[in-house]
Amino acid sequence: xxxxxxxxSLRAVTAGLAALAVLTLAGCGGDATGGSGGDGxxxxxxxSFYPLQFIAEQxxxxxxxxxxxxxxxxxxxxxxxxxxxxxxxxxxxxxLFEKGLQPAVDEAVEQNAKDAGFDVAPAxxxxxxxxxxxxxxxxEEGGAGGPAAVLPGSAGNEDVDPHFWLDPVRYAGVVQxxxxxxxxVDGAHADGYKERAKKLLGEVTKLDGEFKSGLATCKLxxxxxxHEAFAYLAKRYGLQMVGIAGFTPxxxxxxxxxxxxxxxxxxxxxxxxxxxxxxxxxxxxxxxxDLKVKTAVLSPIEGLSDANSEQTYLTLMRENLQELRKxxxxx
Length: 331
What we know:
Keywords: Signal, Transport. InterPro entries: AdhesinB, Bact_metal-bind_prot9, Lipoprotein_PsaA-like, ZnuA-like. There is one protein chain. The protein is an alpha/beta fold. Helix content is 42%, strand content 11%. It is built from eleven helices and eight strands. The protein has a four-stranded parallel sheet with strand order 2-1-3-4, sandwiched between helices. The protein has a four-stranded parallel sheet with strand order 6-5-7-8, with helices on both faces.
């Protein structure tokens, strides 16, 4: 199984420039997205993107300073690190990341924070779901349709799906793993970490129950999204996800893929084409317009935007549940 490395040449240049600046930035502290830096005895924690930031903040509480590498409005798959961000990683006591999702972060941790880096992928129990990355350098290899012709759940696709946080059960596993790591790194505040983790795990378990009951009676079982972020969620709750694009949100779908999606929408009587906040909705809107169906937002919760910056993982997941219930005629 594999997770593809994207934009390697640009990332290599960025990493080289960042490395030159690390020594200058070391000891300066600061929030990699512009906030305040270290605070006394608090543990400096870096989270590579929002779902991990939320865990760190909820479990860490006032015992940690949390810095996120992916600012609101930035698509996490596209993240390239600044020298300041590399410096922040270098100085952190703990760096939470998912190996393979953001290659620039993988490289920065490998080069500057091996001891502090904590890859959550094993705790998430990632697997190949049939969803896939598009390889921009070889998109013609699959013939006229390219690789995007593979449907979620189909055989022959070994890309590991990184979107664990959209499955509350997998997310709970990562919450526990991060909690255990915080206790290991900062045993003096272990009781607080465990207490706050218990509360968060209770909320995530409740969320799982809401999805189970809320999606149990859907008349329609298929939903269409702008990219293949929701395979774990679909599998957990008995639905079928169809992605217009693969794991890469801004990838351009081929004409063949668009036709496949249109055929599925007609055959399965899909009522809604879902798009997301951080990527252009033009393709989703075009398909919906051609088929005279609705569009709506289904958030992959990869990062926040200006429009939902006051929301949380839990509130956004509940909004997703309501949108799925509405689109799939769930009683």
